[in-house]
Design a protein that fits this description.
The longest helix is centred in the last third of the chain and has 20 residues. Helix 2 packs parallel to helix 9, helix 3 runs parallel beside helix 4 and helix 5 packs parallel to helix 6. The chain is an alpha/beta fold and about 375 residues long. Strands 1-7-6-5-4-2-3 form a seven-stranded mixed β-sheet, with helices on both faces. A five-stranded mixed β-sheet has the order 8-9-12-11-10, covered by helices on one side. The structure holds pyridoxal-5'-phosphate.
């Protein structure tokens, strides 16, 4: 049989058209993109393809270079963000892949408040004489623009974790590009339904798909999304070489979660808006931080850090746990982590608002807050 015989299956070759959802709105894309072709007896859902290797002579060849289940997730996420997506084993694997592009001694401008693992990688790179991190208030557009002189990368997280500051992405991106820097936006908190950084000029969008995209606190996964084909090839090349590939089951779970992203974000955000209104009126609360969108809220308490710890242990419905973006509501005092920025108040409790009934969420929070006097 000749090598290119049509009877040889090519399981990981793209089965779908490159832009299957042109003209469709985000909620419809979330439901429909990344499915097998609609032909009689085809499954509606992308199968979980467990494959370490493929019949030779095709485009993929080996399990580290591609997988049809990853591809389906990547198509769906790429369609939502408006670019081409690559999945990674975790959000931090995606962070490491981007920071690996920086040449020795180059500068990365980053928010002073950001995901601790991201700042941890930057600090580690600094200690080893790799990238030089320059931390800024990402909401201060003039300061960010000034810091971008001589920078290789402007790293944006918006809203920031856990301070919930918001960057003017379009303005700082323009300034960074004028200075010759590439722009990365960690879009984990906002999701592509509330913010699409590629449309605002950013070069790379990053996700911890562990959070809202997968949405059920049952899988770790990361992703990068870009528009530029050459940059896509570079990042794919790094993934092929370094091996930080997604688990197939995790990619499938994230795709399954993505199908209801719009419903979850809509409900969680509506719950958050209502809880913010009530929290602002509660006498135990000294400050509520909420950027006006999304479902992450931070509260500070008059009674200090011990009261914050007590709050996290006296709720019944709200689970004391780190991470965020699941269907279930969780909370934690961020400074319990030694790695959290010292400029984050000791009593700050981050709430990840889920999709439960808001009255039950409030009743539980209120009984715990009322105990603090
Ligand atoms: C969780 C998180 C990450 C890291 O992702 P993992 O999937 O946990 O590796 C990066 N950025 C933000 C904003 C996060 O919340």
């Amino acid at each position: 049989m000749p090598d290119d015989s049509p009877s040889v299956p090519r399981p990981a070759a793209p089965a779908h058209s490159p832009e299957p959802a042109a003209g469709l709105r985000p909620a419809t894309r979330a439901v429909h993109v990344g499915r097998p072709p609609v032909v009689p007896d085809a499954p509606l859902n992308t199968p979980i393809t467990m494959a370490a290797t493929y019949v030779g002579g095709g485009d993929v060849e080996y399990g580290r270079y591609g997988n049809p289940t990853w591809l389906a997730f990547e198509e769906a996420l790429g369609s939502l963000e408006g670019g081409r997506a690559l999945a990674f084993s975790s959000g931090l694997a995606a962070v490491a892949t981007v920071l690996d592009l920086v040449a020795d001694g180059e500068t990365v401008v980053a928010p002073q408040h950001a995901y601790q693992g991201t700042l941890g990688q930057l600090g580690d790179a600094g200690l080893r004489g790799r990238a030089q991190g320059k931390l800024v208030d990402i909401a201060d557009t003039a300061a960010v623009a000034a810091a971008c002189e001589d920078a290789a990368i402007l790293w944006i997280e918006s809203p920031t974790n856990p301070a919930l500051e918001v960057a003017d992405i379009a303005a700082v991106t323009e300034a960074a590009h004028a200075a010759g820097a590439q722009v990365v936006v960690d879009n984990t908190f906002a999701t592509p339904l509330l913010q699409r950084p590629l449309e605002l000029g950013a070069d790379i969008v990053l996700h911890s798909a562990t959070k809202y995209l997968a949405g059920h606190s049952d899988a770790l996964l990361g992703a990068l999304v870009v528009r530029d084909d050459a940059l896509f090839d570079v990042l794919k090349g790094r993934r092929d070489l370094l091996g930080a590939i997604p688990g197939t089951l995790e990619a499938w779970l994230a795709l399954r979660g993505l199908r209801t992203l719009h419903l979850r974000v809509e409900r969680a955000q509506a719950n958050a808006v209502e809880l913010v209104r009530r929290l602002e009126a509660h006498p135990a609360v000294s400050r509520v931080r909420y950027p006006g969108f999304g479902a992450i809220v931070a509260v500070e308490l008059h009674a200090g850090p011990d009261a914050a710890d007590l709050l996290c242990r006296t709720t019944d419905l709200w689970v004391f746990a780190t991470s965020l973006g699941g269907v279930e509501s969780t909370l934690e005092r961020r400074r319990r982590w030694k790695t959290e920025a010292p400029t984050i108040p000791e009593s700050l409790v981050r709430l990840s608002v889920g999709v439960e009934d808001v009255e039950d969420l409030w009743a539980d929070l209120a009984q715990a807050l009322d105990r603090l006097g």
